[in-house]
Amino acid sequence: MLALRTRGLGKTFKVKRKEPGLRGSVRSLLRPEWEEKPAVRGIDLTVGQGETVAFLGPNGAGKSTTIKMLTGILHPSFGEAEVLGLSPWKQRSELAYRIGTVFGQKSQLWYHLPPVDTFELIGRVYELKREDYARRSRELIERFELGPYLRTPVRKLSLGERMRCEIAAVFLHRPSLLFLDEPTIGLDVVVKQRIRELIRESNRSEGTTVVLTSHDPTDVEELCSRVVVIHHGGLLLDEPVERMKRDVLNRKTIRLTTASELRESELPLPEGTNAVRKEGRTFTIEVDLGRTAVEDVLGGWIGRVRIEDITVEDPPLEETIKHIYGRRGEKEEGA
Ligand SMILES: Nc1ncnc2c1ncn2[C@@H]1O[C@H](COP(=O)(O)OP(=O)(O)OP(=O)(O)O)[C@@H](O)[C@H]1O
């Protein structure tokens, strides 16, 4: 069964054209001129029930606009969408009973109230039967280990504690489709891991469909089986995470600061590595894990290079997307 399907879904915003300077501001106030700004350029997408899909793209790519159309917040300019068999903008309140949304940057809990009060409120808004609400909230409080924070006003909770409550709250009405927008933003590594486990477990035990946006590659790797990349409002890539990992995430970035000035030619770089930047004494080196291992690269420097500092990181998602974009461009040119 399909959780959602879109055909040629798009949104064009009408924005005021503004000329520079004070005179321009006054003119656009008195005699505004409008221009069309395409945000989403016609997306075809299907997501099956129970799938876990990462929805990625650089800032301004059109992710939020797409999610807002799929949740009925925005009316599209063209195209069609069906979410759980409903039209999001025509049957918005019906849909609200069946989906859940978490925005990492915005809280749905009442700031001055303890989470337990918001839970009660959500139970009433979604018209859950008393005994059903009691059973479900008990189960979630246990699973998310919320006991210690339940009666503390939200304003006094740490970000990690609050996010656990946020995610538990969204599961109260048993949504069959979850939209998670940056659910682990700003959290420390341990809390991020716990949040991911809880989302994964809900997907496994309740078959909840998950559509996630995140700038953290670990969220994508650990939570999703499929990745959809949007760029300049259009679909760029739609493939299993495994394949993307093999092709693109199979890289690490090493940042090496040497204790003394070193020319690029003096740094031993084995096959499968590529020095992409040198700023002062800091080199940025990309490692293709399919061709060499990070420890072999580091091993080649020990005793030969005086090292002041070294870090090993995943390439930033923005770079990964640029890499995908480059690869696609090459394919299209070659076609
Ligand atoms: N209400 C609006 N009016 C005019 N333009 C808008 C509006 N909302 C979004 N846009 C524009 O549409 C484009 C897509 O924005 P959107 O917020 O969907 O991107 P995004 O992929 O979610 O980015 P981010 O990762 O930064 O949240 C951007 O160029 C943005 O400036």
UniProtKB/TrEMBL annotation:
Keyword Zinc-finger in record: no
GO molecular function: ATP binding; ATP hydrolysis activity
Family annotation (InterPro entries): AAA+_ATPase, ABC_transporter-like_ATP-bd, ABC_transporter_ATP-binding, P-loop_NTPase
Keyword tags: ATP-binding, Nucleotide-binding, Transport
Domain ABC transporter: 4-257
The protein's name: ATP-binding cassette domain-containing protein
Taxonomic path: Bacteria, Bacillati, Bacillota, Bacilli, Bacillales
